[in-house]
Every structure is written in C-alpha cells, then in structure tokens.
Amino acid sequence: MTTNTVVSVSDLEKTYGKPNERQYTALKGLNFSVAAGEFVGIMGASGSGKTTLLNMLSTLDTPTKGNVVVNGHDVTQMRGNQLADFRAQEVGFIFQDFNLLESLTAEENIGLPLALKGTPSKVMDQAIHEVADTLSIADLLQKYPAELSGGQKQRVAAARAIVHHPAILMGDEPTGALDSTSARELLDLLTTINAQQQMSVLLVTHDPFSASFCQRILFIKDGQIGSELRRGDLDRREFYQQVLNELGTFNE
Amino acid sequence: MLGKLALAGIKNRRRDYLVLLAGLTMSAAIFYMFANLATNRAFLNANAVVSSASVIFGFGAVLLILITVVYIMYANSFLLSMRQHDYGLFMMLGATRKRVGELVFLETLILGTIATAIGVVLGLLLSKFLVGFLLNALGLHLKHLTAFYLPAIVATVVLYVGLFILASLFNLVRLTRTTVLKLLHSDELANQPKVNPVWQLIQGVLGIGLLALGYWAMAAINDLQMAAIPLALVTITIGTYLLFRATILTIIRALRHTSWAKKRLNGFLLGQLNFRVHNYTRMLTIVSLLFAMALGAITVGSGYHRQLPLMAQRTGTYSVAVHDPNAHEQKLLDRLDSAYTATYTQKRQGKTVYYNAAELKRQPVEQRAYTKTGTAKHVSRQSFKAFQKSGIKDLDFLSLALTKAGSPYAPKILSAAQFKQQAGQTITVTTVRVKNLAQDLGTLKRLNQLEMARFSHPAEMTVGNYQSYTLMLGMFGGLEFIGYFLGIAFLAMLASCLMFKILSGAPGDQRRYRMLYKVGVRYHLMRHGIAKEIGILFLIPGIMGIIDVLFGLQMFKPLMPAPMSPYQGIGLTFLIFVGLYAIYYLITLALYWRIVLPKTTDA
C-alpha cells in the first residue's frame, strides 16, 4: 500500500442472513482504492449495494470477508472504542437526512467532533469559525436545525464533517433531499474543499448530476464493480453527458 | 376495515400498549386502595383518634385525584403520540375524519375501561395482601378494615371512566383539528423555548415566595386549621413549578456558554435538557411532590412505629410483671433482654399485701424520676429507707398487687421472720425491665396473652410499660398504618410516572443516539451521558422533595405530642428511602440504556 492511498478495499464481501437461512449477498468481492485528494463517486441503482459498501467503509457494518484499509487503519480488525474513535477522527460524514441533532445549535453541532476529541474550547471556536466562513454559514451558527432550510442544514452537516480535518469525507446521497440550487451549491462546496484542502471525497449517489462533479466514478451492479469512468480533462458538462451515456448502456 | 387496521396497529406496538396499560392499571389500583381507606367512614372514625387525621385523609384524596388527572393527561398524550402517525396514514388513505375520530374515541375509552377494570381487581388483591402484610409487620389491629368496599369501587370507576371519557373527547378534538401532514411528521417538530430574563426573575421570586408561604402554612397548622393543607398544596405545587421553570432554564443557558459545555457530550446533555425543559419542569414538579408525599408519609409512619415503644418505655419502670410464672412463661421471661429483673413474694390477706423486707433489700424496686413538667428521666433505685417512705407509694409498685375490682392492695413490709409467719395467699411476682421495648415486643405480647389466659382479670393483672405501649398503639396505630400505606402507594405512583418519562422520551432519543453513534461517539460516553441526564431528572425532585418534607413535618407536630417528635430519627428513614429511590434510578437507567443505545449491528 502506498502512502497516498486513503482507501483500499480488497475482496470485500457482505452476506446477510444466517447460514441456515435464506442468504443474500450484497457485495461480491469488491476491489478498488481511492488516492489521497481524489474525488470519487460510486453509482448504482437501488439495491446495487452502494449503501452496504459505504457502511463497510465507515465501520457502521462489518464485512463477511475481505479487507478495508482507511488511512492506514485496517477497519475490519477494529473493535469497540477503536471503531468509534476511527469514525470520530478519520471520517467525515454527510447523510441524506442531515443527521443534525435538533437539540443543539448549528455551532454546537459543528463542534461535536472536536468536543469528542477533547479539544480546548478556544481552538474549537477558531476551527468552527474557520469552517463556517469556508461554507458561508457564519451567520447561521446560533440557529437550531429546525430554523434552517434544507440547503443550510446540509451545509452545517458538511461543516461538521470536515471541521476535524478527517482523512476522507464520505457522502451518502448528500443532495438527495435538496432542491437543485442547494444541491449545486453543496456540490460546488465539496469540489472546493476537495481542491483546497486536498481532502479525499467519496460520494455515493444514484444521481448523474451529482456524480458529474467527481473525477472518477465506479459503477456498481449486483454487488460488483461493473465499470469505471474517469473524467480526465473533460469539463463537468461533458462529463455529465458521458455519465448519462454510460448509465444508458450500463443497466441494459 | 378501519377497525381491523387500528387493531393491527395496536398489535404491532403491543409492548408499548402493555406498558401503558400496566401504568394505568397500577394507578387505578393505587387509587382504589386509597379510596378504600378514605371513604371507609367506620374505619376512619374507629381509628383516627385525632380529628385532623381524617381531614388530612380528605386532602390526601383530593391530591391523589389531582395527580391522577395529570397522570392520565400524561398517559393520554403518550397514547396520542403513539397513534397519530397511524391515524395520519388512515386519513391519507382516504378515511374520513369522522370515522377516524370515532376510532380515536373508542380506542381511548376501551383502553381506559380495561385499565380501570383490571386496576380495581388488582387494587382489591393488593389491599388484601398489603393491608394484611402491613398490619402484621407493624403489629397493629385495626377495626373495620376490609379489602372489598363497594363505595371505593364506585368512586374509582366513576373517576377513571369519567377521566377517560374526557381524554377521549380531547383526543377527538385534537386529532380532527390537526392536518394530515402534521400528524405524519409530528415527531420531527422541534421547539426552542424563548427566555426573557425579567420574566424569569419574576417567576423565580414568585416561586420562592409561594414555597415560603406553603411551608409557613404547614408549620402554622394549629392557627390555620383546615385551611393549612389546601393552601400548602396549591402554593407548593405552583411554587415548585415556577422555581423549576425559572432556575433550570437559566442554569442550563448559563452552563451552555462555559467551556465545560464544549467537553465531550456535555453540550449534548445541556442541549437535551434545554430542548425538553418544558416537559421536564412539569414532570419534575409532579415527581418532587410525589417524592415528598411518599417520604413524608413513610417518615410519619415510621416515626410512630419507632417512637411509640420509646415513649412507652419511658413511662413507669418495669416492662412487664408476671404472677406465679409457669414453666412456659419462665422460658419466655428468660428470653427477654433484661436490664433489671426482680422477683418478690407476696402474701395477700384482706386488703393488705405483705412483702419480705429481705427480698426488697436484695432486689430494690426501681423508681423513675420525673422533671417538674412531668417529662420522664432516668430510672434509679432508692435505699431501703427511702423506699419505705416514698417508693412504696409509687403506682408501679402498687400495681403489682391488684384486687379483683382493680384497686391496689395496701402494701406492708415485714421483716423476714415476721413474713414467714404471716398467713395469706402466697404469690410470687416477677418484674422485668427490658433494654429495648421495640425489640422484645413479640415475647412481651406472648407473655401478656398467657397472663390474660391464666388470670380472671387479665387487664389488671399485667401492668408495666408494655401495657402503656398497647394503649398508645390503640390511639396512634391508625396513623402509623396510614403513613406507611400512603408512603408505599405514592412510591408506586412515582415509579409509574417515571416509567412514562422513559417511554415518551425514548423514541426521540433513540434517533439522536444513533446519530451520535454514526458520528463516532464512544459507547461509554453515551452511557455516561444518559446516566447524567436521567440522574439529573432524579436528583432535582429528590432534593426538592426532601426540603418539602423537612418543612412539611411541622404539620405533624400536633399529631405527635412531646416527647414524640416528627423529626426524631428521620435520618435512617431518609436513608432507606433514598436507597429505594436510587434503586429506581438504576432500573430506569438500565431500561433506558436498553431502549436507546444503538445496537452495534444496526446502522
């Protein structure tokens, strides 16, 4: 494994159900890697295994077979607190349904990963304000999630995901609940973060528009990688067309 | 069809329904047990010697009704929150509001009726066992106390079914007025209480003022008479509520700006508390009142239980006197933990009883000294000379030989030689002063019974402070029983109130803790967080309740005349009660952990 690989997945398998029951294999021997600073998309239809894969990568679920190495940690070997700490320190998450704690203000939500690490409050305040400026949500910090629009909520969630400078940012359909303007804004932000902070981004989506912001797209079908698309020097629009074409034939 | 759907919905959540039903049943059972005592005139008249006791009982009933009303409101809102998603779904599928309204009405009413019916039966059984158990444990004998009392059943059924009809109507109105969308997404709404510092201050001051008024009213029960209890009840309830509202929110807000709040899950904890502070203040007020009621009642009950023997022990000298003890009685006498035992030979002739001077010298008769105001002091033994002058006239000594009419024989002391020649009926009498009357009550009771069986005039034949104890028990035993009984009833009520707190808060918390889990919060941090949150919910009403009781015991001063005191020895009672409360806390915590913490496998 080279040092500039952030995620490396080998022979990943996941089977649901007990051995004596009807089993269902969601992932069938997946292999791929994400380099540092890369913006990778994972696409596939409903039931193709996208979410299962993301759960494996983020340690929310354990694989049946195979290895997942994230930033040098073999997550399949971790237990208990190690897993929690790994999620808290190495990974930033953005979920489709935001997953903001409605009892905390935006500021407190963003500060949560730092508070978990035991960061001194001064350092914490600084980090929060920095990230809030990056995402232009500085004026929303004192509000509660219930007072924010969907797009604003997702930007707060994004701030929480990157405030502690994780090795990789994972998004599970982050634009799924947003209108098209908010979605585009968020994707632009992710692109900026990716470019400026050299933070790897892994985006799981079934939306070709979102995927067109990525540099590389892996298409999953029935638990296996069906094909791969690289953006290369194409601009986003052209890449978008290419993704649409690929999708047009991929599911045939 | 809709009825079938509704039934299926209930089936799916049968666990929640079971707990709801259990809570309501428990509440109805407790109410029945209480009503059984409170409405039983014959029992009250026969046992409540002090007239204000029945007044206290009356207000206890009013208070219990108030708590029951709040309790049912609480349970009802839980029921509604459980069902509104389903009802919203029915309406979305095209059910008319009228039809859904009927369903809501029927469901609430049926649930309530079932709970009431089971509750009354349970209350009957509990009355039978608890009353029997308590009377046995306390060594009491109360007249006219039965488990089955028709007026109490009627009272319980009327109150509960009445309240459930009201609750059904309330649900009906509420559901038919809410839009379908709101019903479907009811659990996602959030509200943040606004804080106005001036208003907070006014609330705080008003709260403390009302509390002070209430505490004063309880202390001034002699002047205020009947008015004291309702006054205290209203002022303390409102005062507690206002005080909680003013202080809790302010403290949380203040803490949120400290750096402590930015450590680990502290911020989340404060956010949680802040978020639900309105629900919590109501709950905390009820719990603190119930806590105070339970603790106060048990303190008074155990106060009597502990102090009656103490007080009896301070009357007279010996605990029991046995005439001509037979082998069985001697065995029992030997079993007593005696501080002083003496045996005298009497010769009775005419109206005179003769004693042997040698015996009296060898085993002096004890005297109790009294202060000028009549308070008992220590026990002492006079010299033989002094005894001949004063001690011989003591009632305790005179009572060792009573005629059949109940008047004492005139005592006369003879020298050993004269005594030998004196004619008359020879009887020995053994007096025992025990070290601790409370400990030897069982043996003393047996001895007393045996004496009664052997002599024709039993009541006059056994004297001593065991006898005083039984007399006092007849006077105050009713109060002792009521104290324990109410204490246990309120404690049970407290438990089921907290249960609803768990149930109504858990679904929302489940979601929140799953989010925390995803974000990478360690398990033990989440456990600690929950322990702190629930701990605070237990601690605040506990402290408030103890303060309430410390002031409230003033009310019982007239009922516990000196040398008894409602405050004497309360430390141990408080300790035991707090221990019980702590066990409640641990059980609640374990339950909450199980419901709320995410399983490692589900994401």
UniProtKB/TrEMBL annotation, chain A:
The keyword ATP-binding applies. Keywords: ATP-binding, Nucleotide-binding, Transport. Transmembrane segments: none annotated. CDD domains: ABC_MJ0796_LolCDE_FtsE. Residues 7-247 form the ABC transporter domain. InterPro entries: AAA+_ATPase (IPR003593), ABC_transporter-like_ATP-bd (IPR003439), MacB-like_ATP-bd (IPR017911), P-loop_NTPase (IPR027417). Coiled coil: none annotated. Gene3D superfamilies: P-loop containing nucleotide triphosphate hydrolases (3.40.50.300). SMART domains: AAA. Belongs to the ABC transporter superfamily. This is ABC transporter ATP-binding protein. It comes from Levilactobacillus angrenensis.
From TrEMBL, chain B:
Residues 59-178 form the ABC3 transporter permease C-terminal domain. InterPro entries: ABC-4_Integral_Memb_Prot, ABC3_permease_C, ABC_permease_BceB-typ. The chain crosses the membrane at residues 17-35, 55-82, 103-127, 147-173, 201-221, 227-255, 283-304, 481-503, 534-556, 568-593. It is found in: Cell membrane. Keywords: Cell membrane, Membrane, Transmembrane, Transmembrane helix, Transport. It is a multi-pass membrane protein. Belongs to the ABC-4 integral membrane protein family. This is FtsX-like permease family protein. It comes from Levilactobacillus angrenensis. The lineage of its organism: Bacteria, Bacillati, Bacillota, Bacilli, Lactobacillales.
